[in-house]
Amino acid sequence: MTPRGATGLQKAARRRVAVVGAGSWGTSFAKILGDAGCDVVMWARRPEVAREISVAKRNSSYLPGIILPLSVTATSDLHEAVAGASLVFLAVPAQTLRDNLRDIEASLDEGAALVSLMKGVEKGTNLRMSQVIEETLDFDPDRIAVISGPNLALEIAQEQPTAAVASSRNLELAQTVAMASATPYFKTFVNVDVIGTEFGGVLKNLIALAIGIVDGVGYGENTKASIITRGLVEMTDFAVAFGAETPTLQGLAGLGDLIATCQSPLSRNNTAGRLLGQGYNLDDVVAQMNQTAEGISSVAPVLALARSRGVDMPIVEQVSMVLQGTLSPKNLAPHLTTEDGVPQPESSDAIPVVKGWRRLFGSTKK
Ligand SMILES: NC(=O)c1ccc[n+]([C@@H]2O[C@H](COP(=O)([O-])OP(=O)(O)OC[C@H]3O[C@@H](n4cnc5c(N)ncnc54)[C@H](O)[C@@H]3O)[C@@H](O)[C@H]2O)c1
Ligand SMILES: O=P(O)(O)OC[C@H](O)CO
Fold first, then answer.
1. Which residues bind substrate (predicted)?
2. Exposed end of the chain (fewer CB within 10 Å): N or C?
3. What is the pLDDT of residues 351-360, one digit of tens each?
4. CA-201 nearest atom, ligand 2
5. pTM of this prediction?
6. Which option is the CATH number for 16-192: 2.40.40.10, 3.40.50.720, 3.40.525.10, 3.40.30.10?
């Protein structure tokens, strides 16, 4: 036993962590980490944002009304933010991550771990964020983790009780990350299914775009429930084809995030979809959104990946067509039948006779 008075009653050393990106999720996550007892240095691109965070303990452009813990400071100097941090959390847009990583590489402490908070796929390479980290920095996957789940930034910053998943090939790292971010309002579970955890977050954005689109058209709950349910099938078929575990898609990083994002007006993907459904074109929508709606950039890479593994994604295909202006939003449907009208089985796994139908008439899985 540790003798009292030596280390037993001493407070554990505070963990120094960094958060790269001071948008809504980076700031909200910095608050979680500060509340969990870490010393947090954020990197903000704009010096005025860094100054507001450090001095006023606010980030009023992204999280109005939220006061940050005293243990959260910010800088616009990347080296200052990252050097000395044992955990570096990344919350930048998926399409800029590669460049941002190159900028932080020289400042990373030996042994530091990188944790992606992002939910996108890189255009051009079709890589998940953990893969971009591994490839760009030639980084050991055992030092990479991701966090995902039903995590709308503003709700968490308001300390509404929420759960998430920390995932890493290295279970010990996932546990370290979960403990570093444990607060009474934020509970993190762990798994080792990085593929399922990352793809869950990517794919729910695409289904949330579809939900926003039909919402903008004025369709009601039947349409939305049909899209959510069939959307989960598409998400699962896709992720499993790339090596994910089905339970991950049924958990917080899949179904949980799908529900939150499809239901909430706080979701930027849902909001972008709604604007499209109301008749705005993609350029107007992008111009109107001043925050990151990852789904818009992820549609093409996800469809390219789906085609490479023969996975059918009728809802995501239709979202892509609406984005391109080749499908009217009012024609986006959950595609409950095949094109020639032959009814498809809802599930291939439960009813053996239905498997026969699948063989006869084709399947969503090719
Ligand atoms: N907001 C949420 O509720 C939430 C929750 C979970 C995950 N995420 C994910 O977190 C990631 C970040 O999202 P967010 O909500 O914080 O977005 P955001 O739009 O609120 O903020 C993005 C941040 O990145 C910065 N940025 C823009 N271009 C940059 C560049 N070239 N280099 C570096 N930084 C740049 C912006 O200045 C801003 O600080 C996304 O992948 C998103 O899917 C968001
Ligand atoms: O605002 P969105 O659509 O990027 O969604 C935010 C989070 O991913 C919800 O978990």
1. 119, 268-269
2. N
3. 444 333 333 3
4. 8
5. 0.92
6. 3.40.50.720
